[in-house]
Design a protein that fits this description.
There is one protein chain. With about 70 residues, the chain is mainly alpha-helical. The chain has one domain: Orthogonal Bundle (Arc Repressor Mutant, subunit A), CATH 1.10.10. Strands 1-2 form a two-stranded antiparallel sheet. Helix 1 crosses helix 3. The longest helix has 13 residues.
Length: about 70
């Protein structure tokens, strides 16, 4: 997946933005905890909510690659 791939159109959050937000967290063992942290930083999935599953999938993908 490309870093400039837009995940959340409402808040203009890209794959790279989510990856950066994850790296700001002390740990990310749980996808839902990671989602909350990413959401606090990027505000993704706070508009229409249509990207919720894409954000979770992206977080899971990044977590599994670490």
């Amino acid at each position: 997946m490309q870093e400039n791939y837009m995940i959340c159109n409402c808040k203009q959050v890209s794959y790279g933005d989510i990856e950066d937000a994850l790296h700001e967290q002390k740990k990310f063992d749980d996808v839902m905890d990671a989602f909350k942290g990413v959401q606090e930083v990027t505000h993704c999935s706070t508009g229409c909510g249509g990207c919720y599953n894409k954000v979770l999938d992206t977080i899971s993908e990044i977590m599994m690659s670490k």
